[in-house]
């Protein structure tokens, strides 16, 4: 069996058309929209992602500002930048790219984001809403994984509800930005969901869990973690991993968490890396920026101002 390739780039093109229409409407209404990203250090994946977002924002006509800070930037200075962007009326979406340096506490940074501008739902309020099944924003990578999965189900002619109610979904990786949101999105669709992380690889082995999966979402950050023997011919594999690999000639290329060719020869369907989840993630983030702009435009009596955490504001 050779897996059906789920083409993220093709799906992204239709999403881009819809987002462009939304942006044009905002601009006609004179509603402020803008995206600001913050990168601390020179992590290859973060810099590559920031470059993609910059290019896509320009293509869509979304005002964009990318802040690239030195690795030695203090937590206090980063919080001050977040506060500055919270107060900026022309910014509707703020994204602090991971990973942050070890000396900066992610949770401390995220709790200072204005929840209405937190387009990746990392602020505690937004993370809680997502866990309760009533998200303000759906985190872009987890949303992209399920967008592709939903689209693939539709292409088979199956009923989505029937598919999910009978599906076992296994999520590898428990990050706050992908793994945990993916579990919530699986629950919201009525599926049985299991979550494993790196300890399964180190102890019992991932195959013990993944061979029972109808859908496997892999977001572990470990190149080639999932191999052919870890899947069955009925498995739909959504590869979220983005790992830089340097070839013998010095060129850097991105590979996923899945050993693509052997797994594709066995699975039912699979997303490639690059060209799978990534293109949808980028467009979804822009769509969340549009949604944030609309939210911020709501009159203040129904959309209260964000207040700083008490421990920091006092």
Structural notes for this entry:
The structure is a single chain. The chain is an alpha/beta fold and 314 residues long. It has 13 helices and 11 strands. The strands form 3 sheets. A 6-stranded parallel beta sheet has the order 1-11-8-7-5-6. Strand 9 and strand 10 (252-255) form a beta hairpin. The longest helix is centred in the N-terminal third of the chain and has 21 residues, at 8-28. It is globular, with a radius of gyration of 20 Å. The termini are far apart. The model has no long low-confidence stretch (mean pLDDT 94).
Beta content: 5-15%
Terminal-residue CA separation: 62 Å
User: Helix coverage percent of residues?
Assistant: 40-55%
In total, how many beta strands? 11
**Rounded average pLDDT:** 94
- Name the strands of the widest sheet in spatial order: 1-11-8-7-5-6
Helix-strand pattern, N to C?
EHEHEHEHHHHEHEHHEEEEHEHH
Protein name: Bifunctional protein FolD
Keywords: Amino-acid biosynthesis, Histidine biosynthesis, Hydrolase, Methionine biosynthesis, Multifunctional enzyme, NADP, One-carbon metabolism, Oxidoreductase, Purine biosynthesis
Domain Tetrahydrofolate dehydrogenase/cyclohydrolase catalytic: 6-120
Pfam family, one: THF_DHG_CYH_C
Descriptive key words:
314 residues, alpha/beta, six-stranded parallel β-sheet, three-stranded parallel β-sheet, 13 helices, 11 strands, 15% strand, THF_DH/CycHdrlase_NAD-bd_dom, hydrolase, oxidoreductase, Bifunctional protein FolD, methionine biosynthesis
């Amino acid at each position: 069996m050779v897996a059906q390739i789920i083409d993220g780039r093709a799906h992204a093109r239709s999403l881009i058309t819809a987002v462009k229409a939304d942006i044009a409407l905002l601009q006609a209404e004179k509603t402020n929209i803008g995206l600001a990203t913050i990168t601390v250090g020179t992590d290859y994946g973060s810099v590559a992602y920031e470059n993609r977002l910059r290019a896509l924002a320009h293509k869509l006509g979304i005002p964009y500002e990318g802040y690239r800070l030195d690795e030695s930037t203090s937590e206090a200075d980063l919080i001050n930048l977040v506060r500055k962007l919270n107060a900026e009326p022309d910014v509707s979406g703020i994204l602090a790219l991971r990973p942050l340096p070890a000396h900066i506490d992610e949770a401390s940074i995220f709790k200072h984001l204005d929840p209405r501008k937190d387009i990746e739902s990392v602020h505690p309020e937004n993370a809680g809403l997502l866990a309760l099944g009533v998200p303000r924003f759906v985190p872009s990578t987890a949303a992209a994984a399920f967008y592709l999965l939903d689209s693939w189900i539709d292409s088979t002619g199956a009923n989505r509800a029937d598919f999910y109610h009978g599906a076992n979904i296994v999520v590898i990786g428990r990050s706050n930005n992908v793994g945990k949101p993916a579990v919530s999105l699986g629950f919201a669709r009525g599926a049985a969901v299991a979550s494993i992380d790196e300890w399964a690889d180190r102890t019992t082995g991932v195959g013990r869990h993944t061979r029972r999966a109808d859908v496997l979402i892999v977001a572990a950050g470990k190149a080639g973690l999932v191999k052919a023997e870890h899947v069955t011919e009925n498995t739909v594999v959504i590869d979220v991993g983005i790992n830089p690999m340097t070839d013998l000639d010095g060129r850097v290329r991105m590979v996923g968490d899945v050993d693509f060719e052997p797994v594709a020869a066995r699975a039912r369907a699979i997303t490639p890396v690059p060209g799978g989840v990534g293109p949808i993630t980028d467009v979804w983030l822009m769509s969340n920026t549009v949604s944030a702009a609309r939210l911020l435009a709501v009159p203040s009596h129904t959309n209260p101002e964000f207040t700083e955490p008490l421990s920091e504001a006092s």
